[in-house]
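User: What would this chain look like folded?
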Amino acid sequence: MSDYPHLTLNQLTAIADRETVMLTGLYSRHPDQVVLTQGDQRLPLLDLPFSWLPPQGCTVRIWGELLQGKPRRLLVHDACHASAPTPEPRRTPTLRAGMPVTLTVHVNNVGDEQVARTADR
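Assistant: Here's the prediction, encoded as structure tokens.
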């Protein structure tokens, strides 16, 4: 799990833009955004977890790509309940032409296109 160091919201200022991180906190959906909360700190979340949609107010372990802009946000890869065993975050393997590969993806229709999304985006 070294690709996703487990951090607190206080530690995010020392992390480079687009680095992957894992955080634990309270997951909540609001009309204008979804956030992860630790104490009085909040981190806006972009997109939904890949394999599980946490219920409102659930304590989760969530991982994704940190976007160090104004405001700082987390591009969510996936999540699990905080009390669950920590799963190994799924990474898309490096692919080469002609290489057989099996991926688990979500497919969404966007206009006339079908877009496939892996757990690590």
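The CA atoms of residues 2 and 88 lie 10 Å apart. If you want, I can go into more detail on any region.
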